Amino acid sequence: MGEFTRLLEAVRNGQPGAIDQIVALTYQELRELAHLRLKRTPQITLLETGALVNECYLRLVKVGELNAGDRSHFLGYAARVMRSIVVDFARERLALRRGGNSPHIAVGTDIADPAAPAQEEIVRVDEALQELARLDPRLVQVVEMKYFGGLKSDEIAEALGIAERSVRRDWQKARVLLHEELKP
Questions:
Q1: d(CA 99, CA 102)
Q2: Residues 87, 122: contact at Cβ < 8 Å?
């Protein structure tokens, strides 16, 4: 049994500090995931790679359990957590931009927030993925692992226990459905 598998077993058994060790072992991969994720949303400059990895770690610790079978499962899960963090951040920024809980006062200005379209797009993509999950949850897993997690088709196939050809078909199907869902 490899060290990573042993640590996953330790997390499942509730051993304190096991998640810390998993994050330490995969820190560079998590940074690459975060960098990839943030590279796709360059207008969100307040989030940086290290901050996204740290927030991901905090959410993993908060949950306290990890139902991953191997390294690919873990990285896919981490990609999903990072997506969730970015979406939450975008929603929060949009709410603040719209005044949050403050009373609305109409003011005639032409100043625009350049990050607003990117944040709205992030929220739209998340909503499209939620709709896609209602149709076929596995398609969303493939999108998260491939697009958000940067995993290769063979790694996704191994993590999901399906054929690599199925992963390629799911990826194509998901792209078409998301494209249709995201049309203006």
A1: 5
A2: yes
Cβ atoms of residues 92 and 115 within 8 Å: no
Global pTM? 0.67
For residues 83 and 1, give the distance between their C-alpha atoms in angstroms, rounded to a whole number.
Answer: 31
In tens, the pLDDT along 116-155 reads 556 787 788 888 888 999 999 999 989 888 877 778 899 8
14 sits in the region (left: phi over 0; alpha: psi -120 to 50; else beta) called left
Contact present, 8 and 70 (Cβ < 8 Å): yes
Residue 87: which residues within 8 A CB-CB, separation 6 or more? Answer: 122, 123, 126
Q: Which residue bears the tokens 């191994």?
A: 158
Q: Give the residue carrying structure tokens 């200005």.
A: 109
Compute the distance between CA of residue 32 and CA of residue 150 in angstroms, rounded to an integer.
Answer: 9
Alpha helices in the chain (DSSP H): 3-12, 18-25, 27-39, 49-63, 71-97, 116-135, 137-143, 153-160, 164-181
| CA distances for 121 relative to 16, 87, 116, angstroms | 39, 10, 9
Of 99 and 147, the structure prediction assigns the larger pLDDT to 147
Give the C-alpha separation, 2 to 27, whole Å. Answer: 17
Whole-number CA gyration radius for the chain? 18
